Amino acid sequence: MGRSRRTLPEELLLLALDPATGTTAQPQSLDLGLAGAQLVELALAGRIAPDGDRIAVVLPRPTGDPTLDTALELLRRRGSPVRAVHWIGGPRLGLRQTYLAHLERCGMVHAVPGQMCGVLPTTRYQASEDASSREIRLRVDTAIRTGVPPDPRTAALAALAHAVGLGKHLYPGNEGRSSRSRLRDLIRYDPMGGLVAHAVMDVQNGVAAAPRRQPATRGATTNPARAAAGASHGMARAGAR
């Protein structure tokens, strides 16, 4: 994978950086979004593909990006397709910091050390004056303003931005209401981005334990004990993250 283009996790993180505070908007949901963005990037690279609401590895060959390749290897070790909500809702310790450190090495952001309450050391991150950062925001703005169907990468980025709650960060106030609505609507232009974005929102809403409800078929029955056991197992996994 060439490094002339930023990956979706990097683009999502740059969108989330608040230029006024040097912090990331929606930090908790952003961590979920970064894990989801890895899935979309791996799909765009032809390494994984959706299988219903699950993710299957179709080509385990490394991409050349160490962070993506770590995710790809973890998916490969599962041995069978994994539900997107379970993957995104799993532990992702340090993922945001990993990407911030990478962007700093690339010169996309620079760290600004400081203190909280005059005692605790803190680090803020300011986006550099770089054409790549402006291009990322311009792509999303153009898709919203023109209504022209965006390319899959931009559609997925918009879907993830909506899923993690960046709409109010990117388009604040009453004047940004219509832009936030159009940002949400862009989710339909990329199936993989839509799948992952819905999974991110499901994890946030606490519904990662149960698969999306399918229409009932005639004569089908449900085993209550099995359903309860499955839900209990899923809640345990969600609570472990």
From TrEMBL:
It comes from the Bacteria. It is a peripheral membrane protein. It is found in: Golgi apparatus membrane. Residues 216-241 have a biased composition (Low complexity). One of its GO terms (molecular function) is phosphatidylinositol-4-phosphate binding. InterPro entries: GPP34-like (IPR008628), GPP34-like_sf (IPR038261). Keywords: Golgi apparatus, Lipid-binding, Membrane. Residues 208-241 are annotated as: Disordered. GO terms for cellular component: cytoplasm; endomembrane system. This is Golgi phosphoprotein 3 GPP34. It comes from Wenjunlia tyrosinilytica.
